[in-house]
Amino acid sequence: MHSETERVYEMVLKRDPDQREFQQAVKNVLMSIDKIIDEIPEITYHKILERMTEPERAVIFRVPWTDDEGRLQINRGFRVQMSSAIGPYKGGLRLHPSVNLSIMKFLAFEQVFKNSLTGLPMGGGKGGSDFDPKGKSDNEVMRFCQSFMTELYRHIGQDTDVPAGDIGVGAREVGFMYGQYKRIRNESVGILTGKGLDFGGSLIRPEATGYGLVYLTEAILRDRHMSIEGSTSIVSGSGNVAQYTVEKINELGGKAVTLSDSSGMIYDPDGISKEKLEYVKILKNVKRGRIKEYADKYKVEYIPRSSDEANPIWDIKADYAFPCATQNEIIKKDAENLIKNGVKYIGEGANMPCSAESEKLFLDSHVLLAPSKAANAGGVAVSGLEMAQNSARLTWTRERVDEELKNIMKGIYKNMSEAAEKYSDKDNFIDGANIAGFMKVARAMLAQGYV
Fold it and tell me: CATH number, domain at 107?
């Protein structure tokens, strides 16, 4: 590492010694900035890197709520507002037992560059709680969401910070939170995205992250005379992102053969057809069931998730892989299995799903890798379009939103690939995305002074 980026990284390690996910995200960006730091001395002189790695604001609060037995429960809530250099803070809310300050900061840090890449005027933030909605009744989820928003409302606003959904936060949770915000503030404004269509939501928003991932993939492959048509893909996860990734793969003539959840994975060599995918949507979105039920219904292989180091989903032969579950789900052994089986491309649907070791293996083996800050930006892109519709008090057609999403993803690919070719290697999209996203935020920070 360059002496300046190494100094900043050492500062982060010293200041936040236990925040491994945040350290990993920072190092990933700093390694790319290494390649341009001597060309742009203002980065060092104006301490851009130090300021970028420190949140503008981080709020931690308790969330008291009562379960169905009338017992008081306490969870911890977070909102990390990382950067408002190019617009109001924008980023999801995650409800999962793993949520802690390190994960919130890593996600907020990534969100800054992801939002920059979209070309829309949005800063970066992230929030959530260690509350687990799994196994909770609708009334318990509602009471939690109302208590969570009772504190969060004072830190957000349509021109300040506009949260959205993430893991554990879908239409149900967004609806409960939005209702509580209106109740407290007595105003109907676009302070959350991912809302229902009946109260200010946007068409294509549920599909956006998965669709955007495949649109970007399509652009990358087309330039290399490759195609999704006739290909086989492995997809992890079975939530919103995975579902619509599979849907778009099907539309383009490809075949997805896997899905997973925290309990295990299914392998369907015939492909997850449109009919089977509709079953998955009902299973996961309505019944909130487990993916094993798919295996039972369609008589396909189900592999429980064991404590073994390697995940069996990444040891299935396929052309392309789409990790859409969670951070660091592809570790070194998984990467070795993917490379051994001849995978040609990885499209990151989840946030930072590849460990640092696996990223290096893919780059060294000339496997194309579209990093999450570019590949899964479709969700926040349509969130930005939802904000625009809310501000104008209009609802756009499905066709218009989809066309806008396609154009945004094409723009991301253009900016990412041009930066990669200019500063690194034409196939190093990690460097390309980091540098392209960073430059826009850095220019805004330089123009706005020491704030």
Answer: 3.40.50.10860
Tokens 């999450």 locate to 372
- In this structure, the answer to whether residues 314 and 180 fall within a common structural domain is no
Mean predicted confidence (pLDDT) in 314-335: 96
The residue range of the domain holding 162 is 3-189
pLDDT, tens digit, for every residue of 270-308?
A: 999 999 999 999 999 999 899 999 999 999 999 998 766
Residue 1 — pLDDT band, cuts 50, 70, 90? Answer: confident
Active-site choice (35, 90, 126, 248): 126
**Does residue 347 fall inside a structural domain?**
yes
126 classed as catalytic: yes
Q: Are 126 and 154 within 8 A, CB to CB?
A: no
d(CA 182, CA 192): 11
Closest by Cα among 314, 309, 321, 335 to 265: 314
For 402-447, what is each residue's pLDDT tens digit? Answer: 999 999 999 999 999 999 999 999 999 999 999 999 999 999 999 9
Question: What is the DSSP code (8-state) at residue 312?
Answer: G
What single-letter DSSP state applies at residue 66?
E
What is the Cα–Cα distance from 252 to 406, expressed in whole angstroms? 14
Domain boundary among 189, 220, 248: 189
Per the domain annotation, does 427 fall within a domain?
no
Residue written as token pair 């956006």: 208
